[in-house]
Amino acid sequence: MKKYTQHQKPADGDERKLNSPVICYPNDTLKIPYWDNYQKAREELTKVDEIIIPPRDAKCFDVKAGYFFRIESTDGPQVGDLNLFNANNYKEKFYSGKTRALHGTHLSLKDQMWSSFPYMRPLATITYDSLDWYGFDKDGGSVHDVIGTRCDPYTNNLISNNQYHFCCHSNLTRALVNERNLQKEEAENLVHDVLNVFMCTGFTHDTHQYFMKASPVRPGDFLEFFAEVDLLGVLSACPGGDCSSEHSSDTAKCYPLKISVFKTTSKVLDSWTSPLVSNYDQLHGL
User: Fold this and answer.
1) Is residue 139 packed enough to be buried (19+ CB in 10 Å), middle (13-18) or exposed (0-12)?
2) pLDDT tens-place string over residues 108-120
3) DSSP helix/strand/coil, 129
4) Is residue 256 assigned to a domain?
5) With helix as H, strand as E and coil as C, how does 191-256 read?
6) Is residue 284 part of a domain?
7) How many helices (H) and strands (E) does the chain have?
8) Do the beta carbons of residue 144 and residue 217 sit within 8 Å?
9) Which of 92, 237, 248, 253 is found 20 to 30 A from 23 (Cα to Cα)?
10) Model confidence at 165, in pLDDT bands (50, 70, 90)?
11) Does residue 2 register a pLDDT over 90?
């Protein structure tokens, strides 16, 4: 938090702070070649699957490459923690840190969810966001963040000495064990930092600590994705509900979330193919 100091400011300290910021990863060269086609294709969608995520629980879902899927609020304000994997290779999974570096702290329309090294390609592209009107509020908060890691029982235990088993980390682990027949240790090692769907978060202006506030999501709001590869998704309906007070709770009002999977009947994506993995030669100077 950098609220403790041991050193006096040097004579040129104010001058040093005047240096201009430089964007670390300019993303102007990142193109979505079929973006217009995605928008045309989503006008002709047929639902092929629907999964309801119960409150304080998680479930797995599958999406074929070239299909669309939506995460929707149904009964009340609820946030969700999303993990994504290449369905044919669980080692290739969502890399929230690099996605954040490329697109910023919060995702929305036309942003992509990038996969881990050495694959480094988009797993999914956001094609519709009914909350894109929110932007950033006076506190610096916004929705759909890639800042938070996911609520977990380890941090909860560290801070409060509780044994709470329905944090999103545990929910995601349990879903992989129960629905993909993985051992607990293997499943837990696969669970990764999430896209916090519908969650409203930011950093405080004074101490720059990660904060959450009541999500603006309402029934009928949804976030829509295009699957760039065959996907295994795992979504947890956070035990914090709308995260207006706490995010590991048996008392917060929680609601289900709905996953809908669609295929398009349009022909505009007939020539589309999944993006290739990174062509870096992996020599690493050795």
Assistant:
1) middle
2) 999 999 999 999 9
3) strand
4) yes
5) CCCCEEEEEEEEECCCCCCEEEECCCCCCCCEEEEEECCCEEEEEEECCCCCCCCCCCCCCCCCCC
6) no
7) 6, 13
8) no
9) 92
10) very high
11) no
**What is the rounded distance in angstroms from the CA atom of residue 237 to the CA atom of residue 258?**
10
The Cα–Cα gap between 73 and 215 comes to 11
In angstroms, the CA 79 to CA 257 distance is: 8
Enter the tokens of residue 37: 């086609």
Q: β-strands 89-93, 80-86: how paired?
A: antiparallel
Query: In the chain, how many domains are there?
Result: 1
Range of the domain at 106: 55-264
CA distance 58 to 52: 9
Residue owning tokens 């929910």: 171
Beta-carbon count within 10 A of 23 CB: 8
Q: For the segment 127-160, what is each residue's pLDDT rounded down to a tens digit?
A: 999 999 999 999 999 999 999 999 999 999 999 9
pTM of the model: 0.96
At 200, list the tokens: 């409203």
**Is residue 4 situated within a structural domain?**
no
Question: Percent of the chain scored above 70 by pLDDT?
Answer: 100
